[in-house]
Amino acid sequence: MAVMEYIDAIRLAMKEEMQRDESVFVLGEDVGVKGGVFTTTKGLMEQFGEMRVMDTPLSESAIAGVAIGAAMYGMKPIAEMQYSDFMLPATNQIISEAAKIRYRSNNDWSCPVVIRAPIGGGIFGGLYHSQCPESIFVGTPGLKIVAPFSAYDAKGLLKAAVRDPDPVLFFENKKCYKLIKGEVPDDDYVVPIGKANLLREGADITVIGYSQPLHFVMQAAEELEKEEGITAHVLDLRTLQPLDQQAIMDAARQTGKVLIVHEDNKTGGVGAEVAAIIAEHCLYDLDAPIMRLCGPDVPAMPISPPMEKFFMLNKDKVKESMRQLALY
Amino acid sequence: MKEQETMTSKTNRHEQLGLTDGQVLDMYKYMVLARKFDERNLLLQRAGKINFHVSGIGQEACQVAAAFALDREKDYFLPYYRDYGFVMAVGMTPRELMLSAFAKAEDPNSGGRQMPGHFGSKRLRIVTGSSPVTTQVPHAVGIALAAKMQKKDFVTFVTFGEGSSNQGDFHEGCNFAGVHKLPVILMCENNQYAISVPIHKQLSGKVSDRALGYGFPGIRVDGNDALAVYAAVKEARERAIRGEGPTLIESMMYRLSPHSTSDNDLAYRTKEEVEENWKKDGVVRFKNYLIDCGLWDEARDQDLIAQLNLEIKEATESADNAPFPKPEDTLLHVYASDEGGAQAWR
């Protein structure tokens, strides 16, 4: 088993799926000759040619719309949005079209498209290279939405997304690309969409999250156990839609104290839905009010270092919230 | 961009275009079928039998002619909501369309889910469409891209209105298709109105000229001249199959009906203007052409109308009597794996 970076795992998933199935192809801005602005598709054009690793016009709605058309024909496109911040011109194609094609045609047509988009800040990207737009899409039935936090999950979830018969949004975290490394099997595995993953067992508090902030949660959990004997039960949602309700309920009941963590801003975020599920099903199992630790409700993240730092989560912020919840 | 001449001569033009007498008679039958179907839907809506109808009256000649210029066994079609004549000419039956009008379970377009005029049928390669306009243009380009990647010899044919040609998806789709020289034919059915907004408030130039910016030919044809439309689409298809890329066709016509059954068009245009345009009706013009060619006469026309009205009546009764979808089927087909309904995910 090789240790590789999160970004390499994403690339490997695309490579394996393109080798496995000729109908799989990648399209997006700068994905070909340059290999992507983050090098996510580096080397793929050399291997598969410029038709299957296609540099497109700078035109997000066409990238999504053309991919949707090709998917309806029977291809398996992986459309790359260079930054999730630039995905909004394609929102109509994603929400009005991809999400509704199976439903509106009464199961006659389908749209097995994958749309990859990097999310998250902490890279001095300013307002428009840092956002987490998942809450724009969560709550649109017909879409599946995944957001891996590890290299293993990145490969397995992307392969599952490519093979899925429905449209999948794959939110990869750009802060994880190079910083997160992990063991990734060379063999052909998938991580099932719709299943959350228990990262850590504990008895005092439950933390539920997804994507990059989970690394802070895991570090904080270790320190809290060592330093203060507080044990945390940590659940990675992995799939934001459809949410794994059973896993959420089980995790909440495990400790009766729940902290939800994500970088997307608090109001209307995925955490709100997770909290609602817990409130609906587990109210009498709770020993403390549900807590949320999220990005602040400002339009987006400023570039100035102290402001970016203020916006971003970090281990200390997460640890403090976890401690407060444990002490409640 | 060239402006095609309107037909004035009475010489036999269809044979020069490679159309047989039988084919032009078939074309005419589809035009009249679409017209009569449309009129029946307007009546059914007024009678409270169906909820809504968006009319294609005035556009049938162009639609049917375009369909006949395509390969109806192979090509992919992305029609817009007025294209009753088009979808009938590529194989959708009056009963199937009536099932949609009545929102019945057997409706092949959507199982009674979508408004009428939102066509779709995998069997007929009519790609499911939505209501936000012109989103189908990038889809047509994507299917054409698949044709190129898989070296298949079909084209995609997509239609839209002149108002829709202002949408970003039109321009993004055209540009993508131009860059990759994809086998797609884009036909604007320029009917002079986007609901109430007339063409001079939508466009300061010609739709067809927009093709210039995308590096492929744009032509304007008289949409009331079925044979001119046929010739333009046929030539565009030949170009596409030869690998020469897309063609934009702007077909000039007039929306003779109100926008929809919810629209009072005399609030924004005059009766005189509408009446003037009835004189240019492409269906009547095609009928006169067939009469001039000695292929048709008034007696046969009356017989045809009677026969089509009967067919439409049967389709209407059949659809009216067909069952609605089960209420709980509302939950089906959100995802491929939800046979148990959307609740399976909750």
Automatic annotation (TrEMBL), chain A:
Superkingdom per UniProt: Bacteria
Enzyme Commission identifier(s): 1.2.4.4
Region forming the signal peptide: none
Residues covered by the Transketolase-like pyrimidine-binding domain: 4-179
A Pfam family annotated for this UniProt entry: Transket_pyr
InterPro entries: THDP-binding, Transketo_C/PFOR_II, Transketolase-like_Pyr-bd, Transketolase_C
UniProt keyword terms in alphabetical order: Oxidoreductase, Thiamine pyrophosphate
CDD domains named in the record: TPP_PYR_E1-PDHc-beta_like
Cofactor: thiamine diphosphate
Top-level class of the enzyme under EC nomenclature: oxidoreductase
Entry's Gene Ontology molecular function annotations: branched-chain 2-oxo acid dehydrogenase activity
Classification via NCBIfam families: PRK09212.1 (NF006667)
Protein's name according to its UniProt entry: 2-oxoisovalerate dehydrogenase E1 component beta subunit
Species in which this protein is naturally found: Paenibacillus lactis
TrEMBL record, chain B:
Pfam families reported in the protein's UniProt record: E1_dh
Record bears the keyword Oxidoreductase: yes
Entries under Gene3D superfamilies matching the protein: 3.40.50.970
Cofactor entry: thiamine diphosphate
Listed EC numbers: 1.2.4.4
Record field: catalytic activity: N(6)-[(R)-lipoyl]-L-lysyl-[protein] + 3-methyl-2-oxobutanoate + H(+) = N(6)-[(R)-S(8)-2-methylpropanoyldihydrolipoyl]-L-lysyl-[protein] + CO2
Signal peptide segment: none
Domain Dehydrogenase E1 component intervals: 28-328
One MF annotation (Gene Ontology) recorded for this entry: branched-chain 2-oxo acid dehydrogenase activity
Keywords carried by this UniProt record: Oxidoreductase, Thiamine pyrophosphate
Broadest EC class assigned to this enzyme: oxidoreductase
InterPro entries: Alpha-ketoacid_DH_E1_comp (IPR050771), DH_E1 (IPR001017), THDP-binding (IPR029061)
Domain of life per record: Bacteria
Protein family: Belongs to the BCKDHA family.
Free-text function comment from the UniProt entry: The branched-chain alpha-keto dehydrogenase complex catalyzes the overall conversion of alpha-keto acids to acyl-CoA and CO(2). It contains multiple copies of three enzymatic components: branched-chain alpha-keto acid decarboxylase (E1), lipoamide acyltransferase (E2) and lipoamide dehydrogenase (E3).
Name this polypeptide is given: 2-oxoisovalerate dehydrogenase subunit alpha
Originating organism: Paenibacillus lactis
